[in-house]
Amino acid sequence: QIVDRLSELFVQTNKDTRYGESHPIGYLIVEGKCWEWLGSKGRGYGHLSKGRRQVQAHRWVYEQKFGFIAEGKECHHICANRGCVNPDHIIIVTRKEHIAQDRKMGYAAYRRNKTRCPRGHPYSGTNLCIDSRGKRLCRECKQRTNRRWYARRVRGVI
């Protein structure tokens, strides 16, 4: 099972030499089809440390399942979810093909296909809010932001 193998690899990858321990570097939610990366992210893409360098989580997971990605090739998410690390949702393309795919799918497709907020809460049921501009919001995160704003206002910071 790929999920079990990845869990083992996550633990093996991030050894804390100061304490002689290892610990997971990121977590997967296997829900439906996408595997959402819940570790560190940059611009929506999961990333992790391998030694002293940062690597993209989806690229690393892909290489664990299918092997090395050739020089000059890029990973393209066919699910349009940057946080997805499911290797079956990634195809290897040239830069030119990648740009063409992105144009064809459009940024709206990426947003529309997101099922979770950046903190991992679902965009569904009572947790889904739509703002005045039509943007989907996570009710839980919105309430958290409102509470923080109110607390700052009460303290006189705002």
Automatic annotation (TrEMBL):
Pfam families linked: HNH_3
InterPro entries attached to this UniProt entry: His-Me_finger_sf, HNH_nuc, Homing_endonuclease_His-Me
Ranges where the HNH nuclease domain occurs: 56-98
Gene3D superfamilies documented for this protein: Homing Intron 3 (I-ppo) Encoded Endonuclease, Chain A
One GO MF term: endonuclease activity
Protein name as it appears in the record: HNH nuclease domain-containing protein
